[in-house]
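User: Teach me something about this protein's shape.
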Amino acid sequence: MVTKKSKITDTTARRVSRGTQQASGIEGYLKRIFALMFGAVALTGVAAFLTLATGAVTHLFNATFTGFSATYYILLFGGLALSIWAQVRVFHMKPGTAAWLLALYAILIGVTMTPLIWAALSINPVSIIWAFGVAALMFACMAMFGYKTIKDLSFLGIFLFIGMLGLILVGIISMFVPLGAGFSAVVSLIGVLIFALFTAYDMQTLKNAYRYIGDETQKNQMAVLGALHLYISFVAMFQYLLSLFNRE
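Assistant: First, the predicted structure itself:
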């Protein structure tokens, strides 16, 4: 004979079991995201190092070293187009293919980042370590905040998207029209703030999305997309901080 007490115990046990399975599942899901993201960051570092070490960075400038070459713009806008296309098509491709595209994008970012790193090496080499360390600390704090907070951050989405578009537009304009040092500093500060908030926003979005993901393939696809979003935020914070630390 099954008593009411035993029924309650069984129900509680099943709930605990489901909760444990879900916790284990989301841990594995987040591990995949961060493994892909950290792998992309490592690829970016290797690509930047090789571009500098082999002298290939000189091909990113024009003959007089007063501006960027056509190669630089092809790689820069090609990487931007690849990022947008991958985000749109990620759920229509195999997770392995999406991961390879993430790797290719990370390499392109590493190459196009080298002029900034080259300038930092000539002004203050230690600033590269400082920028990376501060970006890593900010990323970790904001990612933890986004994961732990019970406050709904979805309202930030539209504002962050508009802010990112504004930063891209200013970045494009600055390639052709010199911006003042003060204005550039303000833009860098805004950029750090926007992508720090993006980290928290994306982290919460990825956490909530796990509840509605169906099969393992979709989880792997979402992991690649999440890694791409977090990678972009981390690299953007690093670049803006490096620019701030090397103002002349």
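Now, about its shape. DSSP finds seven helices and no strands in the chain. The first helix runs from residue 4 to 53. If you'd like, I can walk through any region in more detail.
User: That's plenty for now, thanks!
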